[in-house]
Task: inverse folding
């Protein structure tokens, strides 16, 4: 059983690397959209939903699979999993808010997005720290 | 997944059917993903290089960084979810832990490095295109083989 736990932890470590790569590429994509040219017009509801809908599905699936996977590793306490679930929900909400804010035609939209991105990155570092501590 | 750790897998034909179906979908996904990448980027050196860097003689524009980044972003997500489920099935079914460990390392490293190599190929080019093609095909073939092996192991139970 200990061997199996070790293998699950190995998979979990790799999935953390995958998650980091997904976040880096996501933030990079987001940064590409933050050029002044992209902010000169208001996006349509359709284009915003095209981003929000797949993210709501994929982030929730990612959170479910990743956190569910933690149940295998006996060293990780259930309270840690609850904390992680709450943090991931916050992450999901931040992501959706960033995308939905595109709908507002506000001059300070860029600063709002930056603030939300900061929350997003902070939440993610907290998750990474909690998982790293648990492992 | 937690449901895979049940000890009643041998007696539970419904669960076995569920795993068969899941693995069949994985194999189908992996084959079609190979086909899709062959069509939109190209899995041969000359075609992939022309798509990524452009070809003036053939009037081919280089691919946009945004499009490439989106492909890498989605690839990372799909490969992560697939590998999490596939490796958990492999760990649950295989009695050879050393083999499982090697497979997890090989699958995860190739799947993780493939999109990174694709992105780097956009900036540096040439040799990284070959590395991307090799890594991409390797992880797909490995995942197909692991899926087939898992189907066989479930059948043997």
Result:
């Amino acid at each position: 059983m200990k061997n199996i736990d070790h293998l699950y932890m190995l998979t979990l470590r790799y999935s953390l690397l995958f998650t980091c790569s997904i976040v880096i590429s996501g933030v990079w994509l987001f940064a590409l959209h933050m050029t002044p040219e992209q902010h000169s017009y208001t996006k349509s509801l359709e284009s915003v939903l095209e981003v929000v809908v797949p993210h709501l599905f994929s982030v929730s699936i990612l959170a479910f699979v990743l956190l569910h996977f933690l149940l295998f590793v006996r060293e990780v306490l259930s309270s840690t999993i609850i904390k992680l679930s709450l943090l991931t929900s916050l992450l999901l909400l931040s992501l959706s808010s960033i995308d939905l804010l595109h709908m507002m035609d506000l001059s300070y939209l860029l600063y709002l997005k930056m603030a939300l991105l900061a929350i997003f990155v902070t939440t993610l570092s907290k998750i990474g720290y909690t998982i790293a501590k648990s492992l | 997944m937690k449901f895979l750790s049940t000890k009643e897998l041998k007696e539970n034909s419904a669960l076995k059917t569920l795993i068969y179906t899941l693995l069949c979908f994985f194999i189908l996904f992996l084959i079609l993903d190979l086909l899709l990448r062959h069509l939109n980027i190209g899995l041969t050196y000359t075609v992939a290089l022309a798509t990524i860097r452009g070809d003036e003689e053939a009037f081919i524009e280089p691919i946009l960084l945004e499009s490439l980044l989106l492909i890498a972003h989605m690839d990372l997500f799909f490969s992560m979810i697939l590998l999490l489920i596939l490796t958990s099935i492999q760990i649950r079914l295989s009695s050879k832990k050393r083999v499982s460990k090697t497979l997890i390392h090989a699958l995860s490293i190739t799947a993780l490095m493939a999109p990174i190599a694709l992105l780097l190929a956009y900036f540096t080019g040439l040799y990284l295109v070959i590395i991307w093609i090799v890594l991409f095909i390797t992880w797909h073939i490995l995942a197909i083989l692991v899926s087939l092996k898992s189907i066989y192991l479930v059948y043997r139970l």
Remarks:
- Helices of chain B lie at 13-40, 45-53, 65-93, 97-123, 127-156.
- The interface with chain A takes residues 1-2, 5, 65-66, 69-70, 72-73, 76-77, 79-81, 83-85, 87-88, 91, 97, 100-101, 104-105, 108, 111-112, 115-116, 119 of chain B (CB under 8 Å).
- Chain B has five helices and no strands.
